[in-house]
Amino acid sequence: MRLFKGGIAAFGIILGLGSSGYAQEKTDISITRQPGILYLASHVMETQKLIEKHAAEDGLEDVTVNWRTFSGGGAQTDALLSGNVDIVNTGTGNLLLLWDRTRGKVKGIITSSAQPVIMVSRDPKIKSLKDIGPSDKIAVPTVGVSTQAILLQMAAGQMYGDGDLKHFDVNTVQLGHPDAMAALANKSHEVASHFSAPPFQYLEIDAGNHIVVNSKDIIGGPLTQATFFTTTDFAETNPVIIKAVREATVEAIDMIKKNPRDALSAYKQVSGDKTDLDALVKIIEQPDMMEFRTDPQGTMKFATHLHKIGTLKTMPAAWTDYYLPESADLKGN
Questions:
Q1: Do the Cβ atoms of 73 and 177 come closer than 8 Å?
Q2: Residue-wise pLDDT tens digits, 69-80
Q3: How many CB atoms are closer than 10 A to CB 258?
Q4: CA-CA distance, 233 to 297, in Å (whole number)?
Q5: What's the pLDDT tens digit per position in 237-271?
């Protein structure tokens, strides 16, 4: 952590940021995220006004951050490309897709979580992915490019070979996590399986649904679930904001690890989630659920897969290709 903060400080010195440069920076910032505690760091950042705090400490006063919640990553990336938001906080697949589509004009800032995501089902016949038939529907946040959709493609490759990587694409249905959880609760709904995310996956399991597959089973380790990214134009003209986002993320993660209950209270305050706080605390105590971290995890595995299926036209040489230069001090993969 000390080295990370030192890297941030050195970045500020290299930029030679003086008061004359701040006047051109935006002070009304818009940042997006999706529902769920994968984005817990952002809830702490919002309630504690950490970006505003660090920007002020770095000399940029009166910053206002407007946080917006989108049901899926696709809508967030559309908002970024259209200029309606400045920074998004969503999954690795969307970052890679925009980096490729814009020829490097969209890049990552920092990550905030690497918890597992779990596919659950209410259908007793579906014990594993091998039991998925042509008519079975699986809810994912964004068809084709969400973390869950890509994990299904990677699993298909492992099961059926590279010639059938999109085996499960026909089964996927686009639903935000709250809507997908409601679909599972409705026994007459066509969607009987949900490649979910916390806290929804654990609430669904508690409601009687069962685990089909865990992301760790597919990718073999932790996987970045929430990463902040932006356009390189915004980063170049707003270096203090970029630095503040990095510093605020580090502080938010430290606060989560020191007092997860308070962090979850912030989540409830912001999201309006009615789940009992004690139940949320139990969720955060599940295996690997404290994987709040700033370094990209498993992202090159995603890039390799997306290039293999043709979604990425350009294969990055390293994860640093799709993160900003000032993020190179992170120990990613």
A1: no
A2: 998 788 899 999
A3: 9
A4: 25
A5: 999 999 999 999 999 999 999 999 999 999 999 99
Longest dimension (CA), the chain: 65
* Angle (CA) 9 40 83, round 5°: 70
Q: What is the DSSP string of 146-163?
A: SHHHHHHHHHHHHHH-GG
- Residue 203 backbone phi and psi in degrees, to 5: -65, -35
Angle between helices 92-101 and 73-81 (to 10 degrees): 30
**Tokens at residue 222, please?**
């932790």
H or E element that contains 120? strand 118-121
Instruction: List the one residue out of 235, 238, 232 whose CA is nearest residue 58.
Output: 238
Distance separating alpha carbons of residues 61 and 64, to the nearest angstrom: 9
User: Which pTM does this prediction carry?
Assistant: 0.85
Q: Exposed e or buried b for every residue in 105-124, given b needs 16+ CB within 10 A?
A: ebbbbbbbbbbbbbbbbbbe
Q: CA angle, 250 as apex, 225 and 320 as ends, to 5°?
A: 60
pLDDT digits (tens, 9 = 90+) for 93-147: 899 999 999 999 999 999 999 999 999 999 999 999 999 999 999 999 888 878 8
Q: Identify whether 199 is preceded by a cis peptide bond (ω within 30 of 0).
A: yes
The helix (run of H) or strand (run of E) holding residue 29 is: strand 28-33
Half-sphere exposure of 191 (CA within 13 A, CB side): 23
Query: Token pair of 94, please?
Result: 């969307």
Q: Smallest Cα–Cα separation from 214: which of 203, 226, 202? A: 202
Provide mean pLDDT across the span 276-301: 95
- Indicate the DSSP class of residue 30: E
In 3-state terms, the chain is what percent helix, strand and coil (to 5)?
A: 50, 15, 35
Closest-CA residue to 301 (of 200, 226, 221, 235): 221
